[in-house]
Structure formats: C-alpha cells, structure tokens
UniProtKB/TrEMBL annotation:
Taxonomic superkingdom: Bacteria
Pfam families from the UniProt entry: DSBA
PANTHER family for the chain: GLUTATHIONE S-TRANSFERASE KAPPA, THIOREDOXIN SUPERFAMILY PROTEIN
Signal sequence bounds: none
CDD domains cross-referenced by the UniProt entry: DsbA_family (cd02972)
The name this protein goes by in its record: DsbA family protein
Positions of the DSBA-like thioredoxin domain: 7-209
Amino acid sequence: MKPIRIFYFSDVLCIWAYIAQIRLEELKLDFPDNIEIEYHFVSVFGNAHEKLEKGWRDRGGLTGYSNHVKETASKFEHISVHPDVWTQEIPDSSLSAHLFLRAVQLLEVKGLVPKSDKVLEKTAWAFREAFFTQLANISDRHIQLEIAKKLKLPKKAIQSIIDSGEAYASLFKDMELVKEHNVTVSPTLIFNEGRQRLNGNVGYRVIEANIRELLHNPAGEHSWC
C-alpha cells in the first residue's frame, strides 16, 4: 500500500501551527512508512497588521491578541512565547517568510542539500521559534538570512533561487492549492485526495484516528459507512 499523502497547510506566524508541530513529529514517529506529509503554506497573516487591527478592534487590538496568544500558549508545556509577542517587532506579512521557506525547500530539489537534512521543516521551526520566543521580525530578509546562517544553509543559493523567480513559482503553487481545497484556516490537514480534512487546533488522537481509518479502509474499497 502506498503511503497516505497528507497536505499540511500552515502559516508560519500562526500560534496553532506552532503548537501543532509536535503532533506532526509524533505522526512521523508512529507511522514512519505509512504517511507522506507535504508542507504547504496558507498566508493567513499575509497582511498581519490590518488583519489584527480589524479583527481585534473590539477585543483590545494588538494587546488583546497578544494576551490571547499568551493564554493559548500557556496551556501547552512544549512551547513558550515572549511576553511582548504581537505588541513589539510585529512582522508585516508571513508571505515573505513563506517565499524564503519555498526557496529553502528548493535546495533539496536542486541537490544542494541532502534530503535527509529536512531543511524545510528545520527552517520553518526555526522561524517560528525566532518569532514567538525572541520577537524576531521574520518578514525581514536580513533576519531570514541570519537564521539560514545559523542553520548553515547556503545563503547565496537561497538568494539566487528567490531572485530567479523559482521560489515565487513554488509559492504560487501553494496559492493554487489553497484555492483548490478552499483552505482558510491554519493549520489544515487534508487527507484522502481532499475528501477528509482537519482544521485548526485538532488533538493528536483525532489525527491518528483519521490515519488509522484510512489504513484499515483504503480509498476505493467498500466500507460500512
């Protein structure tokens, strides 16, 4: 049986995606040969300032959203957030970070880094940690390159991939998939060729149950439901 293909859409600035990363790592440990996770980006925070100023206007504005993020994070022991998150050094857009991450992924495609290095996952996690714990403005190219340097990634190659337009083309594919699957929430997991999806803060056992159901009742076979 072929591995179950999972489309995972997230925004690098989303607190729920930051929380959910540990669930993906657990999935890969529990189903090493049964799943294949494809990482895609949905820019929920494509215009971060306007989104939060409008959406939280009657709930305390940026301070209200900051308190919401801190309260949410306090319920999970495996993450932490800076006390001034979303009130200082606020990124303008997640699009810039997503573009950079697409360029990082293309390092693998071009054979510039080994696939076993999992550069996309490591860099995305480094971006999230830098923003949520250190208030790093990860929409800033200089900050992105600093993180790449710490991870010992080839900065010139990344910049070349962005300058050539290849990273834009790769990110555009994500935008097309977002439209095709009507993704509006971060994170979103899509299984079974789009017939099953899990949106937002979904517990590990729920995700696991969906995978086990697909393993026991492969697509195309009859089921009792």
